[in-house]
Write a structure and sequence with these properties.
Length: 287
């Protein structure tokens, strides 16, 4: 999908680069098709506040209204062929959604893989062929294939590799577990009974977008945050100092917790035993 740039009639328009949305399904009037109403639900926004009303996530608030799409990550209708009715936009994720209609009349949303078009058919289950959009167990997928929407536990539904343009690689299968190379570079073992979608996630050009101005960030519900070094000492550990200073200490949160180089992963996490190679390429050391 190509990227659109604009004539610089204003300073910010010089830098903005947006997607053309050519792959989305249009209605009879040539406008973007409205989402399936039966699969929509309201999204309650908290402005970054918890149930006590305290701000626990800074810099959240405002933005355009959104509605949540009920996306099917389990794909439990095995053996039933579904037809792609439309490729739609989802404001809550970078990937596109594909609206499926099964032969029994039910409609569901899935994350649209690259190359899937309106009118195509997809299947799910062990008998499904390895084609883009099909949901099948890892032991039925050819080694070396690109996959996405990967399960971590059989029957739990896809949890990994769901953003635009992402794909993992199936490296090997040894009879009980498969080795998967994730987009981060991490290599981990996953049960062969886990399911995944064959192919790469669509909307590959998503990362080429340039917001270009602060207003586009505000539309996404992100508010500006004051730099730590610009604050006073009683507001932040990195604040204060004569003239301009870079903090003078290790980067930290307003509550003193280090933010760079500080390991936050649990040392005795259950899933550690499934990691073979870390994201930085070093072997994972089990303690």
């Amino acid at each position: 999908m190509p990227i659109r740039s604009y004539n610089p009639t204003t300073p910010s328009m010089r830098y903005i680069k947006r997607l053309t949305f050519e792959e989305l399904t249009k209605d009879e009037k040539g406008k973007r098709k409205r989402p399936e109403r039966s699969l929509l639900k309201a999204k309650k926004r908290s402005g970054g506040r918890n149930s006590d009303g305290r701000v626990t996530m800074r810099g959240r608030g405002g933005g355009a209204k959104r509605k949540l799409r009920n996306v099917d990550f389990r794909r439990n209708k095995h053996g039933i062929v579904a037809t792609v009715l439309a490729i739609e936009y989802d404001p809550g994720r970078s990937a596109r959604l594909a609206l499926l209609k099964y032969t029994d009349g039910e409609k569901r949303y899935i994350v649209a893989p690259a190359g899937l078009k309106e009118g195509d058919t997809v299947q799910c289950g062990p008998q499904a062929p390895p084609r883009p959009g099909n949901w099948l167990p890892l032991n039925k997928i050819p080694v070396g294939s690109a996959i996405h929407n990967l399960e971590l536990a059989p029957g739990k539904g896809g949890q990994l590799v769901r953003s635009a343009g992402a794909s993992a690689s199936l490296m090997s299968c040894d009879g009980t577990h498969a080795q998967i190379k994730l987009p981060s570079g991490e290599i981990r073992r996953v049960s062969e009974k886990c399911y995944a979608v064959f192919g790469q996630v669509g909307n590959v050009d998503h990362e080429k977008q340039v917001l270009g101005k602060a207003g586009n960030t505000r539309h996404r519900g992100r508010r500006p945050i004051t730099r730590a070094v610009a604050k006073n000492p009683h507001d932040h550990p990195m604040g204060g100092g004569e003239a301009k200073t870079s903090g003078g200490g290790h980067p930290s949160t307003p509550w003193g917790k280090p933010t760079k180089g500080f390991k936050t992963r649990q040392r005795k996490k259950y899933s550690n035993k499934f990691i073979l190679v870390r994201r930085d390429g070093r072997p994972f050391k089990r303690k």
